[in-house]
Amino acid sequence: MDSKLTSRGIADAGLLAERLHDFEFTALYTSPSGRAAETATIIKGSRTIPVIEDERLMEIQLGCWQGMTEDQIQELYREDYDHYRNSPALYKRVDGECFQDVKMRLVSFLTDLQASHDAGNLLIVSHGVVIKTMMLIFKKKFGSHLSSKGRA
């Protein structure tokens, strides 16, 4: 769900901004989620780079699970939750996204990045499942249709 950054989230974003202070970025891409956009603003600091919101960086859509606690989900959807946590290929949501859906929108996003940026560092602010999926794409453990320009 679209929640605001907690005080700890704000502090963590500030620490990350300090660590990235000396890095130059061509652009900053962020999920339009409030907490991601706020994190992006904190990390951007005084840099004069564009901040580009992209829906494809939103967290996985969990359908009716949205807003529920893990305990509630485990109680009501034990097998689905087990697949979500332990067997992602078996996880399917009728009213939300599966991991393959997230992968496909990220492949689209990354392909567009390759087409629009020839050089420079890009900063991407997103969410847990999206970041993990992106890392699997980069490591070629989740398959990818990205070109081999030496990037992504």
Please explain how this structure is put together.
The protein is mostly helical and 152 residues long. It is built from six helices and three strands, in the order H-E-H-E-H-H-H-E-H. The chain has helices at 7-19, 34-44, 70-76, 78-86, 99-116, 128-138, and strands spanning 27-30, 51-53, 122-125. A three-stranded parallel beta sheet has the order 2-1-3, covered by helices on one side. Strand 1, helix 2 (34-44) and strand 2 form a beta-alpha-beta unit. The longest helix is centred in the C-terminal third of the chain and has 18 residues, at 99-116.
End-to-end separation in angstroms reads 28 Å
Which structural category do the helix and sheet elements fall into? mainly alpha
Strand content: 5-15%
Q: Could you state the order of secondary-structure elements as H and E?
A: HEHEHHHEH
Shape descriptor reads: globular
Q: Estimate percent helicity.
A: 40-55%
Number of strands: 3
Give a short account of the largest sheet: 3 strands, parallel
Across the major sheet, the strand order is: 2-1-3
Mean pLDDT: 90
Unreliable sequence segments:
144-152
* Continuous helix count: 6
Give the C-alpha Rg: 17 Å
Note the main attributes of this structure.
152 residues, mainly alpha, 3-stranded parallel beta sheet, 6 helices, 3 strands, 7% strand, disordered C terminus
Topology:
Elements: H1 7-19, E1 27-30, H2 34-44, E2 51-53, H3 70-76, H4 78-86, H5 99-116, E3 122-125, H6 128-138
Parallel strand pairs: 1-2, 1-3
Helix pairs in contact: 1-2, 3-4, 5-6
Short structural description:
By secondary structure, the chain is mainly alpha-helical.
